[in-house]
């Protein structure tokens, strides 16, 4: 069960946004990621609880940020309920999308487990619903993912496969690179792995012919 800590930074000016303390693990029905986020001063900011089925679909999502809350799942696309800090108002949403997204590294891992790309796969288009901090406002984004490189690195626990993905935002054409080992993000825009107590779990199995 990988357990560790990410540092989160602003994508534009690299201002520290805080840290995410996480643990994640594959299970008999899929994969689960649980984390707590803190501010640079150590104050609690929110939490993430994401569970995927064996095909990488989000069967349960619970997000908390600034007293806002999201509960969601894959249902006729993706469906969610957003609750305000007072708890008095809840708004339902549904989009014909493949997955959820947000600032947490969990969502990058979730997409790789859903897409299960190989180096021979063409660029794959995916539609996601992104919840923006701090009020978890939903926004629908179209992205393109490609696995451009996969390398084995020797470690004390055996070879570690590091996958390099190129991710494109289809509305702006902006591209960035994400490095992932199993179910741990090594580096991505705004995300740095600062500490890892246990090795990553194996990556999701590739599709077979």
Q: Keyphrases for this structure?
A:
Glycolipid-binding protein, globular, 15 strands, mainly beta
Q: Can you give a write-up of this model?
A:
By secondary structure, the chain is mainly beta. 5% of the residues lie in helices and 58% in strands. It has one helix at residues 106-115, and strands spanning 3-9, 16-27, 30-38, 44-52, 58-65, 68-74, 78-83, 90-95, 99-101, 124-132, 137-153, 160-169, 175-181, 184-188, 191-196. It has a 15-stranded mixed β-sheet, covered by helices on one side. The protein is globular and about 55 Å long. The two termini are 30 Å apart. 32% of the residues are buried.
Task: Describe the secondary-structure layout.
Layout lengths: L2 E7 L6 E12 L2 E9 L5 E9 L5 E8 L2 E7 L3 E6 L6 E6 L3 E3 L4 H10 L8 E9 L4 E17 L6 E10 L5 E7 L2 E5 L2 E6 L13
Parallel strand pairs: 9-10
Antiparallel strand pairs: 1-2, 1-15, 2-3, 3-4, 4-5, 5-6, 6-7, 7-8, 10-11, 11-12, 12-13, 13-14, 14-15
